[in-house]
Each structure stands twice: as C-alpha cells, then as structure tokens.
What does this fold into?
Amino acid sequence: MKGKRAERTNTSNKSSNASNEFLGTFLIILTAIISGASIVINKFFVVSVDPLLLTSLRAFFIGIIFFFISLYFSRKNKTSFNKVSWKWLLTIGIVGGSFAFWLFFTGLKVTTAGRAAFIHKTLPIYACILAFIFLKEKIGKKLLIALGIMLVGLVLIEFSNISSAMRTGDMLILVATILWAVESTIAKKAMLNKESNWVVVFSRMFFGAIILFALMFILGRYNLITSLTSQQLVYILVSGGLLFLYVLTYYLGLKHINLSKASTILLLSPVISLVLGMIWLNEKVLMLQLIGSLLILIGAFVVARVKSEGVQEL
It folds into this structure.
C-alpha cells in the first residue's frame, strides 16, 4: 500500500516538474521575443531622450508596480520579505537595475541596434560560468553544444557589421552585459534561498531607480525631468511597458529553470531583432545572417528540450 502511494507521489512530482519546466521555458522564450523587439524600438527612443532620464523614470515606476505586486503576494501567502539579506537585494538593484541599464542605453545611443544586440547576447557565456561556479549548476554536453551552435550563429549574423576596432558604445554595452550576468546570478541565488521572485524584481527596479536619480542630481541633469516633452513621455511609457513585460516573464521563468538554460534561450533575441529590422526598417538580409539565424533556431530547439538539473522549486 505504501509502495503504491509512494509511486503515485513520484509520478505526481515528475508531472509537476515537467509542467514547471515547460512553463519556465515558454516564459523565457517570450522574454527573448520582447528583448529582440525592445532593442530595435529603444534605439529610436534614446536618440531623443537622455539615457539616464529614460532608465531612471521607467525603473522607478516599474519598481513601484512590483512593490505592490510583491506586497500582495506576501500577504496572500503570509510570507515575509526577509528570506535573504537586504544587502543582496540592494546589490541586485545597484548592479543590474541602475549601472547596467545606464551603461547599456548610453552605449546604444552611439552604436547600432544590431551591434548592441550581438554584444548583449554574449550574456550566456558569463552567466553559464557564474552559474557553474556560484550556483553549482550542472551544465550538460547538450547545453554546451547548443550554446556553441547559437554563438556561431550570432557571429555569422553580425560578421559583416563588426569592425576590428571596438567602439566606446560597444565597450559600454559589454560591461553592462557582464553586470547583468552578475545580477542574474545573485537573483537566482536569492530565489534558491526562497526569496519571492516579486521581491527580487522590485529590488532590481526600485533600488536601481534610486541610484539612477542620485546620479542625475550628481551630474546636474535633474532639469531634464521638468523639460520633458509629451513625445518623450510617450517614449518612456512605451519603453517602460516593454521593460515591465521583460522582467515579468524573465523572473517568472527563472523561478522554474536553470540560469544557464534561461540565458542561452535569450540568444533567440537577435533573430527577432533581425526579422523586425526587415519589417520595420526595410533592412537587407545577407546569406550569412540567414545561416546564423537558422543555427540559433536549431540551438534554441535543443536547449528547450534540455531539462534543468538541480533546480529547487519555489
């Protein structure tokens, strides 16, 4: 009798794990689509809106939204906010919610959306290394092979556009990408320690906004707020909406699957940027770009079928 009961329990757990794996994978794929669209759209916005102002305002409003969301779920589930030390949540905000965004949008203003997308999507390299060292995630051969295939695809997509000399904008985006990998590692660690993903997102956006506003005053740019035009406000709202969807789907997905798998799936983003560039900007697509996109899609298919190992369900 006990044996049958244990067998039913194991079957139920396997079914639940498979369902969570599918949900997490699906949400991260949505994140990649949102990310690919956002890079193209935000390239238009940073031309007329100061990067520091854009990142500050949207982070602040999104942080407030996630504060009320986290408060609601905390009361509903009767859980506290202090599962992990606030110093780590503050670090998430400083590293990923402020400096990374500021550096990225400053770099995006002086480089192309395509180059920015390519550099940003090297994130899985740093994320996988950090996840292996600090989170003890198991990175199987299939995931490594898929990562290699997708990175080759990325190089082919941007091969004709990358010059031998790295621009200042490229370097800023590279540093921002590494900071996001660090932030993702800390965030995943916090969630493994049973901190709510809603609290993690709130910390990222709200604390990040506080730092960005402080930078505005230190650099003497606070007058930018009062000189906002209605068009710039629309740009900030649209950009903020895209960011809200990005962090919502990313952190919900990261709750269910490994950081290494999640970051690798995000390599789909440049393909989305490529397609939208064709549709919205009438950009020409070279044969290398088509081959690279195909490799990324093949790699993404492999990654989507790889099971996350060592994930502790929250």
Q: What stands out?
A: The mean pLDDT is 79. The two ends are 30 Å apart (CA to CA). Residues 183 and 292 are 28 Å apart (CA to CA).
